[in-house]
Design goal:
Elements lengths: L1 H5 L5 E5 L14 E6 L24 E4 L12 E7 L7 H11 E12 L4 H14 L20 H10 L2 E9 L8 H6 L1 H10 L6 E8 L21 H17 L1
């Protein structure tokens, strides 16, 4: 996420949801916002400052809103970041609203959970065990339900219908779904192997897409235009006089 947004330029950037993930911390746009649907329960050590003015280098301006009715005019944002937002909201309406507020050639960054991964398999297995009355043997459920997982191919189709062009797709997190930091560290070797041998089965993915508007043309800066050279009338007039004098002498 940090590498993806670092080189995206513009004036206005927005992150929808998941305030514990600072998705815009490496972005250099002057005006940045963080939108949430409700006041989140933040872990200790994380501060959601609601009084910070937009444009500060560290913390974006945070506010509460519905993701399918953003308080921004049409074609007003250059970047929108969706860190697992589509899994916790109405995906169709949220993407449609993102398309509305983005300018032409604006970008959207989507992070999601892959339905063809070990994490999705664990979520489906826990759901099955609950139906069988054996859910107490699986421990607490810290993942979304299986039907909340949005695959990359479905996301590609939705973005294409809204006029987006997918630029980047990245997968990651190939370790099993375990809740212990120690066990995650023990399975770290799977991340190195998975990125090489089964890349599309990573538990998480990131998609970067750009909004395309038919007939739109971006105008470059004025200093890039070449000056128009105008012939000197004095030189042309002097040349005509020389020609006329030569004809008279002949």
């Amino acid at each position: 996420m940090d590498r993806a947004v670092a080189d995206m330029f513009g004036y206005h950037a927005l992150q929808l949801g998941l305030p514990t993930l600072a998705g815009l911390q490496h972005n250099r746009m002057p005006h940045r916002w963080l939108a949430t649907q409700q006041m989140p329960a933040l872990p200790s050590g994380v501060n959601l400052n609601m009084d910070v003015q937009a444009g500060t280098p560290d913390v974006p301006l945070a506010f509460i809103t519905d993701f399918d009715a953003l308080p921004f005019p049409a074609a007003s944002l250059d970047l929108v970041v969706l860190p697992h937002t589509l899994e916790l909201s109405n995906a169709h309406e949220t993407l449609r609203e993102v398309e509305r507020v983005l300018v032409a050639e604006g970008r959207v960054v989507v992070c999601g959970l892959n339905p063809t991964s070990l994490w999705a398999l664990r979520s489906a297995r826990q759901r099955l065990w609950r139906l069988l009355g054996l859910g107490r043997f699986m421990g607490p459920d810290y993942l979304p339900q299986q039907d909340a997982f949005l695959g990359v191919w479905r996301l590609r189709d939705w973005l294409r219908l809204l006029g987006f062009e997918v630029e980047v797709v990245r997968y990651g997190c190939y370790a099993p779904a375990v809740g212990s930091v120690g066990w995650l560290q023990r399975f770290a070797w799977l991340d190195r192997l998975g990125a090489r041998w089964w890349p599309i089965f990573g538990a998480a993915y990131m998609v970067v897409a750009v909004k395309k508007v038919r007939g739109a043309r971006l105008l470059g800066a004025a200093w890039k235009t070449k000056p128009v050279r105008v012939a000197s009338t004095v030189v042309a007039g002097q040349r005509r006089q020389d020609v006329a004098k030569k004809e008279t002498e002949q």
